[in-house]
Amino acid sequence: AQKITQTQPGMFVQEKEAVTLDCTYDTSDPSYGLFWYKQPSSGEMIFLIYQGSYDQQNATEGRYSLNFQKARKSANLVISASQLGDSAMYFCAMRASNSGYALNFGKGTSLLVTP
Amino acid sequence: DAGVIQSPRHEVTEMGQEVTLRCKPISGHDYLFWYRQTMMRGLELLIYFNNNVPIDDSGMPEDRFSAKMPNASFSTLKIQPSEPRDSAVYFCASSLYSPMNTEAFFGQGTRLTVV
Asked: Of A93, A94, B80, B92, which is most buried with the most CB atoms under 10 A?
């Protein structure tokens, strides 16, 4: 069985600063994918970034980057130059072949960006 | 494509009534997921389909919940009879046939209130 853990229920960051949201996972499958989603207060789920278990480099998408440490089974999301609009819930998720490619989510981290 | 379409957006029903939530996935997507989101339990995967076939329904909370996917463009989640503890936001999501490196796209969700 796979498990995704987000240990930070809430985080604060000042505008223009960088922030790291933690995610650890547990799977016995060597082939898996890791995803981050953003959920603003309006409720929609927005895909941010993907990292494959065999990817050699950390994924980046604009101001989002993924600090992937395979041996430690962590996939932390780094948001650079935070903006007020980044205030939202952030979810880490995983898919693995040995779980039938189900997309399972962590509990999420609430991020508040302050002026 | 219009994205994943869920209906209704909001549903208020009385305890004991049958509730049917509907989802139209993105055309060409082979995976379809149903989630329930509450403050207490976060995002729970209820059931998911691959090529219209249910793969894992272990997340369905009780026999009161059932889901079907009669064709590639339509799925339903039914609760009969409904109870106040079923109040939540229900999301449908779909993804392409290559599950490892493609994200799931979410609908806007159905906010269910059972009184």
From this structure: B92
Q: What is the pLDDT along chain B (115 residues), one digit of tens a residue?
A: 689 999 999 999 999 999 999 999 999 999 999 999 999 889 999 999 999 999 999 999 889 999 999 999 999 999 999 999 999 999 999 998 665 667 899 999 999 999 9
Largest Cα separation within chain A, whole Å, is 44
Residue A103: which of B42, B45, B101 has the nearest Cβ? Answer: B45
From start to end of chain A, where are the E strands? Answer: 3-5, 10-14, 19-21, 24-26, 32-39, 46-52, 60-61, 64-69, 74-79, 88-96, 104-105, 109-114
pLDDT of residue B100: 64
Instruction: Report the distance separating Cα B110 and Cα B73, nearest Å.
Output: 18
Burial class (CB in 10 A: 0-12, 13-18, 19+), B59: middle
Partner residue opposite B42 with nearest CB, options A33, A37, A107: A107
Residue linked to tokens 């609908």: B107
Residues of B with CB under 8 A from a CB of A: 31, 33, 35, 42-43, 45, 48, 50, 55-56, 89, 91, 93, 95, 99-101, 103-106, 108-109
B99 contacts A105? CB cut-off 8 A: no
CA distance B48 to chain A (A): 7
CA A73/CA A25 separation, integer angstroms: 6
**Which ranges of chain B would DSSP assign to H, the alpha helix?**
none
